[in-house]
Amino acid sequence: MQDMFAACSLLKALCLMVLFTLPAAANDSTASLDTGELVLIPNADIRLEEEELFISPDEIRVRYVFYNTSSETITTPVAFPLPPVDYSYEANYSADPADAVNFVDFRLWVDGRNTPFQIDARAITRDGRDVTSLLAKYGIPITTFTSDEAGFSGLRNHLETLPRAAMAELRSVGAIHGPDWGEGFYEAWIANVAFYWMQSFPSHTRVVIEHRYRPVPTYTFYGNYDLEAQHLFDEACIDADFEFGARRRMADQPYEMLGATILKYILVTANNWRGSIGRFHLTIDKGSTDAIVSLCRDGIRKTGPTIFEWEGRDFQPNQDLTLLFLAPLPTE
């Protein structure tokens, strides 16, 4: 494994493809992207001493303290891969970015210093063909997120007015599906995006890595039917108190429906580091005093009107987090 990463300067694309392992999820309303921990090859010398994790529907912030227990400096690639964005089925991803590639506005600091990173973005078809260069040839972005409706309309107009030969070539490799010409086709590639950098961990030294980004959760509706069907009861550990609070809020809402935000965070990749996490501190901000939140974590304390906290020592993650936020729908 170490030999493989040593060759990353020559085989960057191959190395990063190994890191695209996080799942994506979707429902009837919007599609979500599960995001989470930094990824490093399993390392027996670097210990994750502390992790401070802040989660809200609008922002995720993480602060890691790493310690190199060995007698030598370790320099290794570190990556933050996003889950694949699958355009091969119709899904409405709720992202409104200023940057179509860094659509989560990922930012990085090492030991308090704003740190540059590289982005690897590739378009892969369902059968594994890399069509990144082909999309670039015809001026098609790998991700089709746009910051406003005008940008989206411009992109669609560009795609729909490509020459017939271009459309035929894109269709022949499985990059698009649909009619031979005109409206009705749709993108069929999978966008893989990862942020990565080379990180040095000096011997017997602590290194602080911080990053923040905007999550892409699922936005949908949640009503009495969902409670009766026990949707997300196991995944988000919905208990009797949460159900009571949900029903009380639903009773005051038109159609007895609440707005639901489902946010998933990958934790288990932290097990790549040496041993358990020495100290893990989780802070959740539900955003509104009218909202309620449920997740699988015992012993959470309410420390503010919208803030909940949990702390663990020698923490070994054995499952990822699913957070369900319910809130009254906005009124016009």
Task: Report on the architecture of this protein.
It is a single chain. With 332 residues, this protein is of the alpha+beta class. The protein folds into two domains: 2-118 and 197-327, Sandwich (Immunoglobulin-like); 126-188, no CATH class. It contains seven helices and 21 strands. It has helices at residues 2-6, 12-17, 132-137, 149-160, 164-172, 224-228, 240-250; strands spanning 24-26, 31-33, 35-36, 46-55, 60-68, 74-81, 85-86, 107-110, 113-114, 118-124, 176-177, 186-187, 190-201, 206-213, 218-223, 257-266, 277-285, 292-294, 301-302, 307-315, 321-327. The strands form five sheets. The protein has an eight-stranded mixed beta sheet, with no helix packed on it. Strands 3, 15, 16, 18 and 21 form a five-stranded mixed beta sheet that branches. β1 (24-26) and β2 form a beta hairpin. It is flat. The model is unreliable at 1-32 (pLDDT under 50).
